[in-house]
Amino acid sequence: MRLTPQLVPPVLRATPWVGFAPAGVVAIGMAWVASRQPPDTMARLLPTRLAVLSVAIGVAFAFDDPAAVLSDPAPSQLILRRLIRTLSATLVASVLVLAVVFVASAGMDLVRVIPAELVTEAIQDPTFDDLADAGLPQFPGGRIALEAATVFAITLAIAAGVSRRVDPEPGRITTSVLLGVYAASWMVPDPYKPWADPSDQRWETGAGWWWAALVTFALVAIALSWDTRNASLGHVWRSPLPAISVAHRSS
Amino acid sequence: MTAAATTTPPQVSASTAQMALQLARIETRRAVFHPATIVGFALAVWAMWGLSRGEAPVLNRAGANTSLPLALIGAGSLIAVSEASIRMWRTEHSEAIDIAPASPRTRTTGLLIAASSPVGLALVLQSAVLGLMMLNRPVTTLDWWDALAGPATVALLITAGVAAGRWAPSRLTGPLLMVLILGLSILFGSYGIRQEFGDWTAWLAPLVPLEFDPVEIAFRPTARHMLYLIALIGVFATIALLRGGTRRRVILVSSLAAGLGLVVVGVALQSRAFQRYDFDQTLAAYLPPDADYVCDKRATVTYCAYPAYQGWIEEWAALVQPVVELAPDSSHGQTLVVRQYPTRALDLLANGSGTHMDYEFGLATGMWWGRRAGGGSSAEWGDAYPFGMALGAASWTVGLPLELTAGTWSQELGPDGQTESHKFVPGVEDVPPEEVSYQACTTSDQGRAIVALWMAAQASPVSEQHLRNQIENPEYPLVEEFRNPDGSVVYGYQGLHGSTGTGQPYPWYALDFQIREAYYAYQLLSRPDDQVLDLIHANWSRLTDPSTTTLDAVTILGLEPIAGFEDQLSLAENLRFEFNPPCD
Question: Which of A30, A244, B441, B494 is found 20 to 30 A from B100 (Cα to Cα)?
Fold first, then answer.
């Protein structure tokens, strides 16, 4: 632990920050797309979620560490280096998400949680068609933050898994896996779909599932980052699929 | 001499075109077997399976519906080729690539040719799904341009991926480009942008999903859109080739200019087509009296379908006829008309916007149809359509009205002097036409609703399964708490949720059935059909009397009131009562 302060500057230097720049630009662009929609929750949720996904693509490269093989026998533990990378990357990602939420909620009330009675009132309106018509100009900033944190945890868990078994620069494969999982999550049948809007019954119950997923994937990321010395990273590993074969660099 | 000859390196004699083709062969294998392409293909198959689950095939919608999932193949391939296109900038490969005989432009050409393999995959998948639809009693005809938009989008995404990878070589390029294209597609199709610039903006996206309205009414300039897509593919391919060489730059720049010109022409053509399109006139052509119908009278029921949909008449008759024949006096001296409408017509009327529709709807059905029974109460499996049709016929048989109730909305102050409550007042005497609104009537606490629901379940195994699913696998709690703005809690029981997911609730907007009556109809299903039918025939006049309550019917039919359920219902004040007047 005494090494920690000395580790911070080199680890921060080695973290691929440059990925956050294009990811941030696309994220803010998506947030702008959201802000161009009418001031109702339903119309702005999807582009906002895409903005969060853009930030997650930046996070996916947080564990890229070409020197992993060389630093493996170093006295500092991998978990410590990962912790520094995770904290710094999520800090930048959080700032981006905050910016996204502020841009996307332009012209709306930014709230942590949309009060249930407002939704009920809108739904019970006899002229109710959907919330966009009935008007629900509250932007659920808290829910977006929770979803973002969970998506980041999933991203880091994938990156940790990929770097442990496949590649010391897991960002490339992580983004592909993340996008595949993301697309699949939108295609599951409604009762099981994690994505909801305030008019869905799953909106309320879904918060609990998002929290559970956040904790679970954070723990998975920690577990997979604990120690790679006994994992196959130090050995030649070749995938049966040519595209994810690893060019081993230890020579 | 022999030794010297064997040590001389082989001369590269292949032409640029041959090299490009050889590279294309290698890149094809890599692109097709890349995990991202495989995942995209798997997701596309999954999405296609969802398409073919419940709804009967309507070919003029099949093109758009099968094109949309293909974008997943395009997305996966985009990531695969963008990785391939940045390969020469990745340090571990640069040396090996630098000494290769092929120039960067040749490698780009090989990559672009390799794009045809994911396009081929997309075409195979789409053809298989369309082939299956062709075998499943389809109606209408296929819009080939709409169908080809899917494979064209795959090609567009791949060429965009190659171009972006060549000019912005980064590992983030592919994923971020994908998010960007998705975001732009959402932007172009979004409500806000369409309100500001017109509906044509949606057609700036590569793929345009189907609208709420059927294809016959929702304008789709698919041929013009194909020109736009091909122009975009050409533009991105040229941009990709412009990187990595100076030869033939003039030709490439000219091609780029021509491609951009074609894009502008494509956009202009789409925009102009929308300006010329008259929605109201098109809608009117699908409504009586102008609409062209093919009608078929069978016994006491007349079935009227649009010519392209007349294949469904057999299926409608197979549901309606058995239900009508269950009644002791099946015709009450009248003829039932089953007529097809665009869903929009029903929607406009239900929202009070359709005051010009001063004709009787009869048993209205839409331009969607489903056949299969699913595993849950959700209507996505398509069993809501046959059940809705059968319930419409059964409702007519027991004397429930098929037409919407005309009336007006009144706003009253609540007991606290502030809260406004809405109340629907039936009757339109002395009411200006612009204030007339239409509302469904509720069958709540009417015994004949139980009879109608049971009769509908007798129409076919699919319709029976639908009713069973409503009770056995409810999508929502049967009895639910509602919190008033003043904090008080009321209990409401659910309506019978039968929306088909395509904006076509069943049986139509005129009747609002409740889950309570469905619960008792479900109980009847556990008894022998003949026994139930004898009981209904023996008490027909009482059971179909509007004043016979649900509990009266429960007694007549020898059912046991469900204690817990009725106890809860005694507390219940169904909120929909306030909105929907009771059926006459």
Answer: A244
